[in-house]
Amino acid sequence: DAEITQSPRHKITETGRQVTLACHQTWNHNNMFWYRQDLGHGLRLIHYSYGVQDTNKGEVSDGYSVSRSNTEDLPLTLESAASSQTSVYFCASSERWNNEQFFGPGTRLTVL
Amino acid sequence: AQKITQTQPGMFVQEKEAVTLDCTYDTSDPSYGLFWYKQPSSGEMIFLIYQGSYDQQNATEGRYSLNFQKARKSANLVISASQLGDSAMYFCAMRGGLSGSARQLTFGSGTQLTVLP
Q1: Is a pLDDT exceeding 80 seen at residue A97?
Q2: Best mutation site among A37, A38, A44, A54 for testing chain B: the one with the most B CBs within 10 Å?
Q3: What pLDDT is attached to residue B2?
Q4: pLDDT confidence of residue B102
Q5: A57 partner at 20 to 30 Å CA-CA among A3, A65, B19, B99?
Q6: Cα dihedral A17/A20/A21/A22 (nearest 10)
Q7: Which residues of A75-103 are buried (b: 16+ CB within 10 A; e: fewer)?
Q8: Which of A33, A42, A97 is opposite residue B91, by nearest beta carbon?
Q9: Whether B49 contacts B35, CB under 8 Å
Q10: Is the dihedral of CA A44, A50, A53, A57 positive or negative?
């Protein structure tokens, strides 16, 4: 069955370190998204991609970057981790931009 | 800018009863879509139901239905015959139809539903 996976599921890191969160989907979806979830804020969009070599900034993109070198993967990089980036991160994909999005299981990131 | 408001931080319902979770939205886009997602305590996000702004009928998916009132800009989720497994956080989300960032999902802050035995 097609799926979307994230790794690691849990990560503890220190302030200032570079961190990369992986997202891999086997749906063959062109559209991929990264969100963060914090209490009281629901999910907020970090970055998104409509296809290979396409990346766009979302609502809360400062301090994050993504790259899209193939259809299946959209890694999220925190260039220099900050305590404010402690959160749960979700990756999602959709077949078309106006379809429902399918979410990965999430990555809990703690920045000390 | 798009905005989604869920005014009920927490709701309780007795098992086997129906419950309505409120969602209001604001957009100037004539074409938009409304989504509901469920997030159980295990953390995953599960898509439940979708309503397009031009859809004539209210969407239904099994025990879930969406009470779409366009003039009031509301898209309430109705769960019939609640089950203990329905206990979860529920998020309303909207995407616009214009290009760029308006096409992306904007989420509400969620409603925590607890089903009582």
Answers
A1: no
A2: A37
A3: 82
A4: 64
A5: A3
A6: -160
A7: bbebeebeeebbbbbbbbbbeeebbbbbb
A8: A42
A9: yes
A10: negative
